[in-house]
Amino acid sequence: MSNSESHASPSVPETVIADSDFPVADCGLARAARLLGDRWMLLILRQLFYGAHRFEEMREALKIPKSVLSTRLSALIEAGLVETRDYREAGSRTRKAYYLSTAGEGLGLSFLALLGWGNKYFPEDFDPIHPVDATTRRRLKLMLVDAETGERADLTQVKLTRTPAN
């Protein structure tokens, strides 16, 4: 095998390509990547999805330096993904708790998709985490559905295109 063959990029199926007129930075994925492309941002948001709300709780779970956590939380607040609420334990000063905003909660399906992808393609030596229905405890899965009919869509038939912002 030649050197160029060994480093060939995997091809993208033609059915899953975008219209060719999309500027690289002019898409929601590019904008999201600019904000979330940092490992710490994703892990902080993960902790918030898992129900952690206090600074020290997140710092200890992530083993993240205080200054890094503080900076990233400030950026998430400024971006509108995280909100703060005051709380006070008896005998202590008032502190901030961190919660996902509506926009932050909107990342839920993306995080579940990444979780499933990581479980499938990067398995570890421990039981993976899966989403389950809180009442029935049955496993859940994500899928694409046709916005008009509600029928399941085939990913190989997806094409990205611009639509008017309404």
From TrEMBL:
Taxonomy, superkingdom: Bacteria
Keyword Transcription regulation on entry: yes
GO molecular function: DNA binding; DNA-binding transcription factor activity
Pfam families per UniProt: HxlR (PF01638)
HTH hxlR-type domain ranges (all copies): 27-126
Regions crossing the membrane: none
SMART domains, per the entry: HTH_ARSR
Keywords in alphabetical order: DNA-binding, Transcription, Transcription regulation
Name by which UniProt lists this protein: HxlR-like helix-turn-helix
Species annotation: Tritonibacter multivorans
Biological classification of the source: Bacteria, Pseudomonadati, Pseudomonadota, Alphaproteobacteria, Rhodobacterales
